[in-house]
Design a protein that fits this description.
There is one protein chain. The chain is an alpha/beta fold. Helix 10 links the parallel strand 12 and strand 13. Helix 9 runs parallel beside helix 10.
């Protein structure tokens, strides 16, 4: 059983003892700390917070506790009910609330849930703000409202339709071309909120032939909810049997998008962002951003348009900060997260689907043919488990010294760029391990680079 406190929110397994798991007491304490942070940030103002949740089984319980706590703190609530993560972010922006709470453990299994905290821009809290909330919770510096100052609830259960309207208004989205292409699209929404949002989006885009897998938002995940190839065998088979043109798979809160080709092969989560960036850059050339553990294919693509690619530290908040700094036209993460600033600064699988279908329709290519046009890289993902007496920072410092002649980036752990590929090493904040990602033009070379670093680290 686990409780993980981080700057972006509180994540844990349901049940057990307070302080060790995500119990009702922990939910109330951290929600009240967030409310206190909001009130200190907006002195003299009555605040309002948008709250939405994914469909996991514990969602209703967590939702009732979070909303009740906000009301008890004198905060008004815009209750979005079952809503995707990007939908809650959009609601904060367009309904002008002072913050937002998303109740989702993203791709984690059914026993997990989390409180993800947003600022008034619909973005995850900065490092400093997140630490302030954790500090308020630890000190229990919490103030609750007197009877005449208790908050009010406004229900808005159809905001996903507003979200979709804003996507359709984007200059890039070509509903005419999509409708004309007459695509057959398969979707797997793991019985969460994607089942509410994605069929509506596809119909609004002009897609009439939809093969739906697991679109009933019961929270009973039919397979591991992380959209990785080993979990997507069923949709792969059905795409081939039903002769679908493309398949889309999302995680429970719909901020990650995996694409499956018409032949049942994987487009590759790393390449979701690459393909979407290709389409955006074709009409609006500009800079791009992804994190240090994402594929170099985005860098190559961006350079082909005569623009610059910038890496950021891992984590959506860091990607967004870098995008703003370099005025990127698109960015995201290699886990299928697409961020389009013209819509909002958050990973959004819905806008990713709309962009990709526009690209697919206008390219005239099959999905697999489209994937084949991008530079092919292979990523090897590994980790080293360390003895508790070994400091991960010491290991990274020695590796930095050992490879000082190579191109190094120490913004987030240590990344080494070799002539034939790169290796990124980051220490875990929750376990005594160092994660090692290596990428090269062949799987053999990527594994070779990873083994080189692992051997050096063990030495």
């Amino acid at each position: 059983m686990t409780l993980i406190k981080s700057i972006s929110g509180i994540r844990g397994t349901i049940g057990g003892k307070p302080g060790s798991n995500l119990t009702p007491i922990d939910i109330v304490r951290f929600t009240a700390a967030y409310a206190e942070w909001l009130k200190q940030r907006n002195k003299g103002k009555r605040c309002k917070v948008a709250v939405g949740r994914d469909a996991r089984i514990s969602g209703e319980m967590v939702n009732n506790l979070a909303i009740g706590t906000l009301l008890g703190c004198g905060i008004d609530v815009l209750n979005l009910g079952l809503a995707t993560t990007p939908t809650v972010e959009m609601a904060v922006i367009h309904e002008k609330t002072d913050g937002g709470i998303i109740l989702t453990a993203s791709h984690n299994p059914r026993q997990w849930n989390a409180l993800k905290l947003l600022n008034e821009k619909g973005e995850f809290l900065s490092d400093a703000d997140g630490k302030k909330v954790l500090e308020l919770a630890d000190r229990e510096e919490l103030n609750f409202a007197e009877i005449d100052s208790i908050g009010n609830v406004e229900d808005e259960f159809a905001f996903v339709d507003e979200h979709i309207k804003h996507i359709l208004k984007l200059r890039y989205i070509d509903t005419e071309a999509i409708a004309k292409a007459n695509f057959t699209v398969a979707i797997d929404c793991v019985n969460s909120v994607g089942g509410i949002a994605i069929p509506r989006l596809l119909k609004a885009l002009g897609v009439n032939n939809i093969i739906e897998l697991y679109t009933d938002p019961t929270g009973e995940f039919p397979h591991n909810p992380e959209p990785l190839p080993e979990h997507l065998t069923e949709i792969s088979r059905i795409i081939q049997e039903k002769k679908a043109d493309v398949g889309f798979v999302v995680d429970p809160d719909v901020d990650r998008l995996a694409i499956v080709n018409e032949d049942g092969t994987m487009f590759g989560e790393e390449y979701t962002l690459v393909a979407c960036a290709d389409y955006i850059l074709s009409s609006n050339p500009g800079n791009t951003v992804s994190n240090l553990s994402s594929t170099a294919a985005l860098r190559d693509l961006t350079h082909s348009y005569g623009k610059e690619y910038y890496p950021s530290a891992v984590g959506e908040v860091n990607v967004v900060a870098k995008m703003k700094e370099v005025n990127a036209v698109i960015g995201g993460e290699g886990n299928g997260g697409v961020i389009l600033p013209e819509l909002h600064y958050g990973r959004d699988a819905l806008v990713g689907i709309a962009i990709f279908l526009s690209l697919l329709a206008k390219s005239g290519k099959k999905c697999s043919e489209l994937r084949a046009k991008y530079p092919s890289y292979f990523i090897s993902k590994n980790k080293i488990e360390l003895d508790s007496s070994i400091n991960p920072d010491t290991v990274l410092a020695r590796l930095k010294q050992k490879f000082s002649n190579e191109r190094l980036n120490t913004e987030d752990g240590l990344r080494i760029d070799f002539a034939e590929g790169w290796v990124h090493m980051r220490k875990s904040n929750t376990e005594p391990i160092i994660r090692i990602y290596a990428e090269a033009k062949s799987a053999e070379k990527a594994n070779e680079l990873a083994k080189l670093i692992i051997a050096e680290a063990k030495n």
